[in-house]
Input
Amino acid sequence: MVNKGFNYFMPTKLVFGDGVIYGLDELVHGKSLLIISGPFLYNNGTAQKVAEATKIGSVAFFHEIEPNPSCQTVDQAVMIARENKVDVVIGLGGGSAMDVSKMVSCLIDNEGSIFDYYSTGNRTLLPRKTQLICIPTTSGTGSEVTNIGVYTNNETHIKMPFASEFFWPDIALIDPHLTYTLPPHITASTGMDAFCHAIEAYWSVNSNPISDALSIEVIKNIFENIEMAVKEPNNVEARSKMSYASVIAGISFSQTKTTGIHAVSFPLTVDFGASHGLACSITLPAFIRFAYAGRKAKMDYLFSVLGFDSMDAFANRVETLMVDINLPTRLSALNVKESDLDHIVEVSMKAPLIHFTPGTMNEEVLYSLLKSIL
Ligand SMILES: [Fe+2]
Output
């Protein structure tokens, strides 16, 4: 039942299906293309394949995207984009490449560096004229359908999200075929990142009836398909359903933002070298138990729709699933020690997202939650 008002805004055109990258020439509007990716997708020829499909004559590649992309990397890519007078940017890869493509496509039409706008920068981005297309090659981040990018300042080691109304990609092109070669550990961690997006959107204080419906659909699909996608990488149906779950989870949390799980993931990636998906999923079972207290009736509805008779049954199933796909559920797997917890709590509590978690969240509560999964 809808008992409070809400807004829903998702301006990105969605193109989903096996082989849709080969229709890119019908979708691009421009004469000079920049493809932003990590080195792997450049070295294995995927970036070039995508470039060819656009049929644009002038193509530049920036293929130095690292995990947890830095502001410095964004500025390097912007330099190449400006030199080549780029009017179409494609972000190809996981969340890192897509996040960088969002900021780069805006900075082509804005002066200065990312530091003028992000964090302590006080300038405001003006509208983007460059076309922005995001093409995910993992099933997890959902960045192709959000207006958020996450960047790390290499000098301060602070990782922070940045949102802009100009970050919504013009087109999100999801071709499940691109995920078929993902190794099992990445399929597992990125897939559980999508699970976190869905359940955080569901329990968020910002949730709305549409994001709720989408989140339930995502969680059901991930329960049914992630293990198959991890253990049988060539299972076309499981791969396709995970791509679908990932983008739908992205649409869901694009409206609500994420919550405590993602706030805690920031120090776990920056200071303990965990991948984003791992840093999120490792606290998932503990956060399910915590968030339940603040959202009882709503969570009970989710459990019953999915066929679980209690919160414990649901949380245990999530934990078993993670063990089955070789994901850790204890912080010690990331070499986190009790003496590190104060720092993790301090950094996490600075992320505004943490306050979208239902229930009372403060330093003491977060400390004991993390201690329970050391
Ligand atoms: Fe995430």
